[in-house]
Amino acid sequence: MLDLFAGYLNLCRHLTWLTSRRDLLHIRRVLATVVSMSATKPHVVFVLGPPGSGKGTQCKNIVQTFGYTHLSAGDLLREEQNTPGSQYGDIIEGHVRNGTIVPVEITCSLIEKAMEKHNVKKFLIDGFPRNQNNLDGWNAQMSSKVHLDFVLFIECPEEVCVERCLNRGKKGSGRSDDNIESLKKRFQTYTNDTMPIINYYDKQGLVKKVDGGICNPKKVFESITVFFENV
């Protein structure tokens, strides 16, 4: 935002000798409006990692400490899936059971609708974007409407994640994909589709990594706090 405002001031200085005073005032008003509109955009942090890495747990900690609103792409899809009469319910159910990714048009629509319900400016979006189609859809539909601050990447070994998910299923998570068959497909999807997205953002310097394999979630959160304190 500071860079944008500095650019605006610099442009105004260079235009003073090219335009009349009336034209210059008009240009300044237009650019000031653009800056003002940009300042009102919500700030977004993507939270990515393998299934069972602790994304949901850490998002709760971030919400409590830093005042973000947590939007889980998976929760939004499951809520829509269980909504009686939903036009997307059967489509979502099929993708969940097969460990594949729901079409981006559906996911982006649910995320945008959820953001509009909250009168806040800071969002954690958990479990999205998960593949190139998600990324392309987000860039086309949402990227101009928000500021992406960074991507929080919670790394975790597959064997640890599988154990966590299976234990979660045994405790009655209510999730149809907390079973070994679905988990195998989900990890294959994560490796083939989601890791390239994380690498894409990493090349832009936007990825902040933490070790989610630590047994104590409090220790994981201690590593996370520094990223949000500097936003």
Automatic annotation (TrEMBL):
Q: Name one GO cellular component term.
A: cytoplasm
Q: One Pfam family from the UniProt entry?
A: ADK
Which CDD domains does the UniProt entry name for this protein? ADK (cd01428)
What EC number(s) does this enzyme carry? 2.7.4.3
Enzyme class, first EC level, given as a word: transferase
Location, primary (coarse class): cytoplasm
Named from the GO MF annotations, one term is: AMP kinase activity
Choose any GO biological process term that the UniProt entry carries and state it.
'de novo' pyrimidine nucleobase biosynthetic process
Gene3D superfamilies linked to this entry = P-loop containing nucleotide triphosphate hydrolases
Subcellular localization, as worded in the UniProt entry = Cytoplasm
This protein's UniProt keywords? ATP-binding, Cytoplasm, Kinase, Nucleotide-binding, Nucleus, Pyrimidine biosynthesis, Transferase
Name the HAMAP family on file.
Adenylate_kinase_Adk, Adenylate_kinase_UMP_CMP_kin
- Family under the similarity heading: Belongs to the adenylate kinase family.
Query: What protein is this chain from?
Result: adenylate kinase
> Upper taxonomic classification of the species?
Eukaryota, Metazoa, Ecdysozoa, Arthropoda, Chelicerata
